[in-house]
Amino acid sequence: MQRLKSQQGSMLVEVFPINPSAIPHLTSYQPDVQTNDLALIGGKLAFHFQKRLKGHWFWSYPWLITDTPQPDEALQSVIEMLWQEQPETFQQLHAIHRNPTWQPTAQTLADFIARSLWTDIQSSIDPLLASWSHRLQRNISIQRVCQVRGWVVDGQPALSVSIASRMIAGIDVQTYAQNLADPNDLVGLLVADKTSTLKGTITKVVGAVVEHRSRLLKVAKREQSKAMINRAADHELVIQISTGPNASYDYVARSLQFIIRPGDYSRFQVDAKQTLRLLRLSPEERSGMLSKIAAIAKAKLLVSGKAYNSSASPTLFLTAQSVNYSPALLLGGEQRVEPKGDTDLSLRLRRYGFYERSKQFPEETPIQIGVLNTLPHLAPNQFLQQLQTELTSLHFASKISCIKDVTTPSRNALEEAVKDLQAHNIHIIVALLADSEDKANKDLLRWGVYDHLKSLTVGMGIPNQIITKSTMNNSYAFGNIALGMLSKLGNIPYVLAEPLPYADIIVGIDIARRSKTRLAGSMNATAIARIYQNTGEFLQYVIHDAPLEGETIPPDVLHTLFPSAIFSGKRVVIHRDGIFRGQEKQALQDWAQQIRATFHCVEVIKTGAPRVYSFQGQVLQPPKGSAFKLNPHEAFLISSPPPFSQSTPSPLQIRSVPPFPIEQAIHSVLALTQLHYGSLRSPRLPISIHYSDEIAYLALKGIKPKELEGNIPFWL
């Protein structure tokens, strides 16, 4: 990345201008398909044309694009062959037609380089990636993967080149499954095809190979896949994996290997500390790897010049200062502070107190705490004393009203314990759980202790704080625990010192989806809006409880989430967790017009953005607020750098809907990262959509407040 030539104090990004000479003349074809599955058929058709015809072929909805157009007879010959080999997939494909007037967009050109021409140099890159891999233990290794993606920067096609790390289990899925009492325990694990780049989540154990071998051989695209199917014994398993919405594939289990995520460490007996050390790449290490890969791409004339940097392209880079972001907060007595980290914020809270106390807890009125202990062999007295000391330091009195030990935390036992604690007129339940029960179970059909406790407390409107065994011994966690408890009781620790000047209200919206069991598509179970004042003070949440069909939030549901009593005549910034789907943006604008409001829509995309770096004599972690601006309405943002200086932060991709400028969209995200009352450390996401994943898992299980509108942030 030419890091040694960068100037002091500059920023750079993992994005390179595409060499104009690398861009070939492209031709497009449109499939004539009598089905709604055009995208699925188009992608598979591109694969077979690439395999059987000259040149490069790729699918960019709704076009099949190539740099080597072929005679109609050659194309029809491949189609007829596919009719014979895979009638179920291609029987709805009638023909494909060349479009003589089509012109590629800058995004199409970038995608063609990333998805087609880059494959020509992959064999030169693979040895480098292999040299950067590590053997962690006997059956576990850490692999480096090169991820390439096309972008448009200031109207020109560009290419991002990134290094990702993944942990791979040496044991394949079939071998692992032989030691399981129930093969369905595989569901939810992340896997990768041994012979390709495909990866996905196991969603189903389909059956035995003997029942599916013939079908799998018919649909297998590659000789390596066919060989795996032929080698598999009759009794071996066929596994279904999901690679995205409405995309699933069946594989023989022996062809799949596990990608191990942090939640899988105990299952595969992985040393978390050693793993984290090897997975983490410093900015200097990461940029050094990219320099070597970029050199190959430049030698092949795919990219030109240096990676985009602030020295050569200053208008494309933003800072916290250039978007007018200030970390200033108001604490007790409206005392203005600019905390320099979580420790400093903790000291200021102890000195000045909370911005606003709940009327339920004036000075000296103790918080009645009920303790539900599922760790009966661990006496909690010392922990509880430290917790009360922490609450006192924040100017809140407390009392341990009752402790209930639950030896076997079944649903019935937990319910009885909660009822007993309620009888003592407690304000909040502190539940002590084993480390293995620290979060919601992502399998919607399986419930753990965490799920049952959340169901019993959230559903009954009882504030609760779940604490695991290891957290009880972590002295640094007490500030976060106390802050979360007090906030769940309606106290407000702090707000923004400077209200957002372009908005009256900020809203985060998300929708929790679950797959249908038999029909195609998905069922969206719950939509939720979290509503904040422009100071960041929480106003209320609104939940739409009825199941929603399809991939978008319908207009009538959006009206429910944005009641006119609150939003009429207001300027509103809307943070969407992910992308707006279908006609959501138009439906919001139509509703805004009806209630004479102004809605500014902002997409906050958590994955896929290339990294941004700072250079000050060496490549470093960039400061909060650093951003790379692709155009007036899209940027990559460093919202909250990780606490480890030797880590390289993953940016958020922020997209605003015109005319709302990207600078104000960035400012709104940065401001709301300051206000997470469950932690003194700023989260990566703004509080408007922070915790969306956990809220979604709970909502899909029916775990939500009895009141579908409320002003207490139950998710903290």
TrEMBL record:
Pfam families: Piwi
Residue ranges of domain Piwi in the record: 428-704
Entry superkingdom: Bacteria
PROSITE patterns: PIWI (PS50822)
Family: Belongs to the argonaute family. Long pAgo subfamily.
Protein name: Protein argonaute
